Amino acid sequence: MRHIISLLMANEAGALSRVSGLFSARGYNIESLTVAPTEDATLSRMTIVTSGSDEVIEQINKQLNKLVDVVSVMDLSDGDHIERELMLVKVRAEGADREELKRMSDIFRGNVIDVSDKTYTIELTGAGSKLDSFLHAIDRKLILETVRTGASGIGRGDRILKI
Amino acid sequence: MELTGAEITIRCLQEEGVEYVFGYPGGAVLFIYDELFKQEAVKHVLVRHEQAAVHAADGYARSTEKVGVALVTSGPGVTNAVTGIATAYMDSIPMVVISGQVPTSFIGEDAFQEVDAVGITRPCVKHNFLVKDVKDLASTLKKAFYLAKSGRPGPVLVDIPKDISNMKTAFEYPSTVNIRSYHPQVAGDANLIKQAAQMLLEAKRPMVYAGGGVILSDAAKQLTELVRLIDSPCTNTLMGLGGYPASDKQSVGMLGMHGTYEANMGMQNCDVLLAVGARFDDRVIGNVAHFNSVPRKIIHLDIDPASISKRVKVDVPLVGDVGNVLTDLIKVLKSSKQKPEDRKDWWKQIAEWRSANSLNYKNSSEIIKPQFVIETLHKITHGDAFITSDVGQHQMWAAQYYKFDKPRRWINSGGLGTMGFGLPAAMGVQLAHPGETVACVTGEGSIQMNIQELSTCKQFNLPIKVIALNNRYLGMVRQWQEFFHGNRYSQSYMDALPDFVKLAEAYGHVGILVEKPSDVEGALKEAFARKDELVFLDFRTDSTENVYPMVPGGKGLSEVILAEDL
Ligand SMILES: Cc1cc2nc3c(=O)[nH]c(=O)nc-3n(C[C@H](O)[C@H](O)[C@H](O)COP(=O)(O)OP(=O)(O)OC[C@H]3O[C@@H](n4cnc5c(N)ncnc54)[C@H](O)[C@@H]3O)c2cc1C
Ligand SMILES: Cc1ncc(C[n+]2csc(CCOP(=O)(O)OP(=O)(O)O)c2C)c(N)n1
Ligand SMILES: [Mg+2]
């Protein structure tokens, strides 16, 4: 099953490689991994999307907790949570496609953030599946490049990950 | 007053009460060696290969309750040390390894003798540090020692660039450590302990399965008290030998691939299993599905939550330190009005399995049987020696036939299975216990992986007794080839062996060749009588002998090959 795991870790050199190294050494899947410092500059927050049996997920949580740099771990999938991913898509936008692409972007609540006479760059946020749908909804041939951040997640309401 | 990084390093070692550093110098650690030279509190043992430095520090740690310390230079110094670090990591041994690094301004430029030490060692250390500011050096070393010995112990590497070791700052050794992300749980959960106690009292067929965690926690006393209190058989893993006295009537010996019949059958057939500081290794429980095919309740006590339910589902998880939790468990049991269930039938069943006499072997008057050498070694040393071992058949025979009654007497590489461990580990043990008897049981294959340490032994007057069971084969490999590869002995024959007697003599030691069973006892007596000398005993043993019992890889614990089956 797919799981989305959030963790806080000391913002130390090499901390990221400890996490990614753990996943590769133990053969765990990583679908995506995002990381950036938090409002407390000594801490980074990471969101990892992974999948595996219940036993594997339990081990992943324990092994992450065991890393000396890791302060706390939360499996967001254990409860209510929100997941968002940012995608930038550059599309060929010429002639009639220009209008159609703008319309699709609006439907998906995207923003056109860069315009040239031949291209649009569209910014979209949402759950990964929404971003997938957008890519399916437009003409594949028009896509010039895409870049996605991978999911960031946060618990709903009182579910708070802090020290 | 300001001190240089090198001075600070040595001062930290002094503050930690470090007695010995095992190491090898080189460019990146020259400032540190210079400071070592200027003082006497921390003694340095110059090995002949960095792998040996780490194994020696490891042997020192295993035979005491202290942290082992090794010091190596950058580049090849670090890479040579990696096998030793991985060995310590797999067996959870507390150790601090200090490595030199190229100057900070050179890092990343493929500088002379540069390797990414932190990157290379990351998967085989508990934690590691690159010191980038001399101001952080003292607190980093303090953390390193704390991490190495607290919680589930393990090796910690501190990489110190050369310029840092020559920069100055004020020195203050922190008296406490606080790592906000690191809080090992040492006390057990009271409710779960009560639940465990109840299960143990009500069990009809209890079994205690004790591992290396008992040794690491120095909890042999508590374990022994508990086992007697609940009237249960006790088996020990290879890493746990000595945690419960092997000569006691409740001991069923070692379990696992080469465990006794009674231990493995007991594991398979018990109704309540108490695992203490053991990690359900594949060499121990064999095929997981087969192990799980019978119903039994499992209580698992371990300081590392990640050890629990890793390979086998557990009913009662007890996270905590063995010593602490067993003390609490004993208290609960003692205060309970309930007495343990009647275990007569269970003991009868155990006795039946015991009568298979699975460690029996046919001795010979013609050819030396390796088992006989170990039994005689036990007799001559009154079962009270520190025994280190290399890896192979000889290791298993030492584990099976030298009945360990005390913890920290059996020093071997279990998790990584590192050939070449035995002799350097023995050096660490002998230095930690100067007056004690230390023997290294080895094979003609393994000993050659760190034979250069005979030179270190000479320099530091280490009167180790090397017990080489020389079967002219990589015996453990040969055994698998005999059982599973149609007797095709691919590359397992050790050809062109040196004359070990002359080799020992060349290093300034005593060598004895033993070829007849009738000479075994005499040779051992002579060797151990030479209290101040290293004696290398070259026993020419039966090259066709196999280790029994054996649970073949992938099989269940009851699917065992016994000696008489063949
Ligand atoms: C050739 C060869 C053959 C082998 N055959 C066998 C065999 O037949 N039988 C066998 O048993 N092994 C055998 N082994 C060894 C095997 O590979 C494992 O190393 C060994 O079984 C692991 O022992 P253990 O479970 O006691 O765990 P260890 O590796 O000793 O781990 C200790 C456990 O205790 C925990 N712990 C540490 N400190 C504490 C504390 N203070 N409090 C609580 N818990 C703590 C740790 O978290 C860990 O889970 C063999 C090895 C070789 C090389
Ligand atoms: C460094 C290393 N390389 C290879 C092995 C695989 N191996 C395990 S036992 C063994 C044979 C050891 O031979 P020897 O030391 O003569 O001991 P014996 O089995 O004959 O008693 C080998 C090659 C190992 N454990 N370690
Ligand atoms: Mg051999």
Structure overview:
By secondary structure, chain A is α+β, with helices and mostly antiparallel strands. Chain A is built from four helices and nine strands; from the N terminus they run βαββαββαββαββ. In chain A, strands 5, 6, 7, 8 and 9 form a five-stranded antiparallel β-sheet that branches. In chain A, strands 2-3-1-4 form a four-stranded antiparallel β-sheet, covered by helices on one side. The mean pLDDT of chain A is 96. Chain B has 566 residues and is α/β, with parallel strands linked by helices. Chain B is built from 22 helices and 20 strands. In chain B, helix 16 (370-380) crosses helix 22. Chain A binds chain B through residues 9-10, 13-14, 17-18, 21, 25, 55, 58-59, 62-63, 65-66, 68-72, 163, and chain B through 118-119, 122-123, 126-127, 130, 132, 147, 179-182, 304-306, 309-310. The complex binds flavin-adenine dinucleotide, thiamine diphosphate and magnesium ion. Residues 392, 443-445, 471, 473-475 of chain B line the site of magnesium ion.
Short characterization:
The complex is a heterodimer of chains A (163) and B (566). Chain A is α+β, with helices and mostly antiparallel strands and 163 residues long.
Rounded mean pLDDT of chain B is: 97
| Principal-axes shape call of chain A | elongated
Radius of gyration of chain A: 18 Å
SSE string of chain A: EHEEHEEHEEHEE
- Name the average pLDDT of chain A: 96
Question: Taking Cα atoms only, what radius of gyration of chain B do you get, to the nearest Å?
Answer: 24 Å
Low-pLDDT windows of residues of chain A: none
